[in-house]
């Protein structure tokens, strides 16, 4: 069965049965739930833990939970975490070494068994982000085997977007509120006078087999039409947008723009934007040794191009200024990522805007760079014709 098959419908009891079936298979089910004042991703043992009746209010540097009257489970925007936290964890032990009584050193690679994940509620922007990380971490000549094992066993249940947030801009990155191929099942939530239900599309054989295990029915035209209209309506309610220009060309033409000084004066170089970004993948390694010196471990952990030591070479860092580090992040994300991976590194989820403590807005910065480029071009044209601008 494929995504072209006729859709079905699950009610809330069917969704409960879906989660129960996944747990019975021995899968680690991860989905959204309310914790610590946010909608976070965590292990679920029941669908009752989903954030029914909760939504969010977003702005640059601002995130608030708000109550909803309709009891919807997926009517919220992306939270502070992405699925990267599970597929490409923040800390991972690579190997350990021990000194033997004879004075030799034995090395033991750390190769734990990968969890059998089932991700419930994957947003379309995050579905695209997973596809990008697949390309980055497993598509080249030096594949990340840990990521590959975790990813190969993961079942993806998408939740299409019907409530975009004020910091969302996926449309302008080539995405949208509808789920692209790559899911096993795709849900579209509908809550109206006829009840609370989920339109379900199947995207893989594994998804079809899972759906067959739970109560469901063939979708009626009314439910299908409402679901489609809700997703299509979300396209027109995006809170932000990148300017409709060739971003690769813009970034290449803006390396010496004055705007970098403006953003550098506000940027704390804290790295929050890279930590919450669902596609940023940079890491470093560190050694952890016990007090005896007989045992050591090598750990890999997330790193950020905003870290002063990220570009450290003998004699000092290559990018010592906030201007240089912010410019590196933005030009790599929107431009040179194409050269490395044949895709942009931005999916328009808006997390970097929401979770920036200085409320720096990537869409605002790109628009400012575009306006500055246009102003430079206008000045150059006037200079070529011997005229002056006001």
Which key phrases capture this entry?
390 residues, four-stranded antiparallel beta sheet, eight-stranded mixed beta sheet, alpha+beta
Please provide a written account of the structure:
With 390 residues, the protein is α+β, with helices and mostly antiparallel strands. It folds into 2 domains: 228 residues, no CATH class; 138 residues, no CATH class. It is built from 12 helices and 16 strands. The strands form 4 sheets. Strands 3-2-8-9-10-11-1-12 form an 8-stranded mixed beta sheet, sandwiched between helices. A 4-stranded antiparallel beta sheet has the order 7-6-14-13, with no helix packed on it. A hairpin with a 2-residue loop joins strand 4 and strand 5. Helix 8 crosses helix 10. The protein is globular, with a radius of gyration of 23 Å. The chain starts with 7 loop residues before the first strand and ends in a 6-residue tail after the last helix.
Write the layout of secondary structure elements.
Elements: E1 8-11, H1 12-24, E2 28-35, E3 38-43, E4 54-59, E5 62-67, H2 84-87, E6 91-99, E7 105-109, E8 117-122, H3 124-138, H4 145-152, E9 155-159, E10 185-192, E11 195-202, H5 205-211, E12 217-218, H6 221-235, H7 247-253, H8 259-266, H9 272-276, E13 283-289, E14 295-302, E15 312-313, E16 316-317, H10 322-341, H11 351-354, H12 362-384
Parallel strand pairs: 2-8, 8-9, 9-10
Antiparallel strand pairs: 1-11, 1-12, 2-3, 4-5, 6-7, 6-14, 10-11, 13-14, 15-16
């Amino acid at each position: 069965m494929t995504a072209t098959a006729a859709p079905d419908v699950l009610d809330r009891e069917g969704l409960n049965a879906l989660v129960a079936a996944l747990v019975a298979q021995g899968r680690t089910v991860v989905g959204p739930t309310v914790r610590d004042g946010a909608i976070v991703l965590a292990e679920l043992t029941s669908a009752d833990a989903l954030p029914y009746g909760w939504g969010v209010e977003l702005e640059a540097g601002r995130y608030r939970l708000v109550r909803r009257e309709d009891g919807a489970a997926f009517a919220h925007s992306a939270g502070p975490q992405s699925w990267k936290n599970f597929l490409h964890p923040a800390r991972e032990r690579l190997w350990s070494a021990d000194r033997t009584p004879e004075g030799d050193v034995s090395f033991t690679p750390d190769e734990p068994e990968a969890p059998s994940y089932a991700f419930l509620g994957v947003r379309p922007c995050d579905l695209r982000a997973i596809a990008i990380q697949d390309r980055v971490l497993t598509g080249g000549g030096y594949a990340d085997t840990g990521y590959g094992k975790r990813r190969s066993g993961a079942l993806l249940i998408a939740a299409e977007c019907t409530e975009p947030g004020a910091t969302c801009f996926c449309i302008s990155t080539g995405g949208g509120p509808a789920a692209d191929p790559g899911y096993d099942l795709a849900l579209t939530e509908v809550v109206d006078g006829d009840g609370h239900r989920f339109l379900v599309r199947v995207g893989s054989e594994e998804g079809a087999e899972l759906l067959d295990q739970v109560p469901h029915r063939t979708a009626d035209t009314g439910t299908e039409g409402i679901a489609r209209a809700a997703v299509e309506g979300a396209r027109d309610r995006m809170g932000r947008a990148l300017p409709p220009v060739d971003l690769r060309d813009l970034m290449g033409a803006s390396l010496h723009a004055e705007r970098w000084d403006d953003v550098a004066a506000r940027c704390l170089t804290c790295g929050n934007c890279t930590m919450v970004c669902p596609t940023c993948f940079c890491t470093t390694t560190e050694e952890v040794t016990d007090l005896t010196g007989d045992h050591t471990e090598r750990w890999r952990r997330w790193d950020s191009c905003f870290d002063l030591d990220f570009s450290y070479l003998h004699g000092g860092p290559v990018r010592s200024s906030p201007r240089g580090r912010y410019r590196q992040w933005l030009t790599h994300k929107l431009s040179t990522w194409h050269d490395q991976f044949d895709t942009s590194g931005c999916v328009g989820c808006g997390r970097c805007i929401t979770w920036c403590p200085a409320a720096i807005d990537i869409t605002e910065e790109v628009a400012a760079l575009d306006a500055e480029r246009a102003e430079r071009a206008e000045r150059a044209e006037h200079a070529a014709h011997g005229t002056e601008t006001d």
